[in-house]
Amino acid sequence: MDKFRMMFQFLQSNQESFMNGICGIMALASAQMYSAFEFSCPCMPEYNYTYGIGLLCIPPIWFFMLGFVLNNNVSMLSEEWKRPTGERHKDPAVLRYMFSSITQRSLIAPAVWVSVTLMDGKSFLCAFSVDLDLEQFGNTSEIRGLSEVEKLKLLARIPCKDLFNQTEIRVAASRYIKCISQACGWLFLLIMTFVAFMIRAIRPCFTQAAFLKTKYWSHYIDIERKMFDETCKEHAKSFAKVCIHQYFESISGEMRRFHNRPDEAEDEEDEDKKRSDEDKLMGIRAQDDMNKVLWNWHSCKPALALRKEQPDGEDNENLKMEANGTPNGVANGHTHEVAKKEWAVYYSKV
Questions:
Q1: Which residues, other chains included, contact 76 with Cβ-Cβ below 8 Å and sequence gap of 6+?
Q2: Tens digits of per-residue pLDDT, 30-39?
Q3: How far apart (Å, rounded) are the C-alpha atoms in residues 116 and 43?
Q4: Which long-range contacts (CB under 8 A, 24 or more apart) does 136-142 make?
Q5: Model pTM greater than 0.85?
Q6: Contact 57, 127 (CB under 8 A)
Q7: Beta-carbon contacts of residue 134 (< 8 Å; ≥ 6 apart)
Q8: What's the CA angle centered on 184, arms 181 and 188, to 5 degrees?
């Protein structure tokens, strides 16, 4: 159990590697599903095209949506997009970067499915067999007297070995369509690789500063959300522990008064243990207060402006100077420089 917990914590700390692994697993799963899928063309003019194109397009759409479902950043993107502005403005460039990152990972499994399907050629053969001209594939003397409807029915049976009797024509037509399908598959892979190269390599070269800003603040949003969840878990754990301790203390106090058994040593030990838990509560000791904190975090997140804390010694010296002089720091004709608090302000504008 500890090994699984350590593995889960590692995957949480390395979310990018985890999501890349999920995308790779989905890509392998799509290829494995296609190899295990039993292809059954209806061999009817009315349904061949629908079945072939549907097999080529519908599973990639499902894999694309599944990639969004399995990506944890989708909920973070939705929260950041729909949250109230409050004291922190929303940067559209960061939202676009997050959405593009999710989309790129979700497109891996659909691309694998489309490429494998085109390389195999069965769906292409089923969809476009009715558009073939059989005269260029062999002896067609037996079908010259057929009507157009009968020819379409005959062409629709090419993908089915049991329904098409002329083996020579069927093999030649199948190879012809599969050749075209494989050419489309290689062209699709070339286009996808070129587009991925343009996105990954060329884009940062033109907008490097904007790219670094959007990447930094997208990581910040992710880390802030994780740390907030961890802080809430620690606070909830301490809150529950203190609440249970207080309940048992009240019960034990009544029992002690009933039996007249005061135990001062145990009380001192319990006090030391409670202090550490109460310190983790950070002054929030009521349900309504916690609800207010959570609501304020959602409705009005704090601005990204960090205050620099001063040591206690500097604050005491400033108070002494103000006490010896006038309120503005002037005493005996001399002006004392009052140390000002420094603020570090970070903006995510692109």
A1: 98, 221, 222, 225
A2: 777 777 777 8
A3: 22
A4: 137/168, 137/169, 137/172, 137/173, 137/176, 138/166, 138/168, 138/169, 138/172, 139/168, 139/169, 140/169, 142/166
A5: no
A6: no
A7: 140, 143, 155, 169, 173
A8: 140
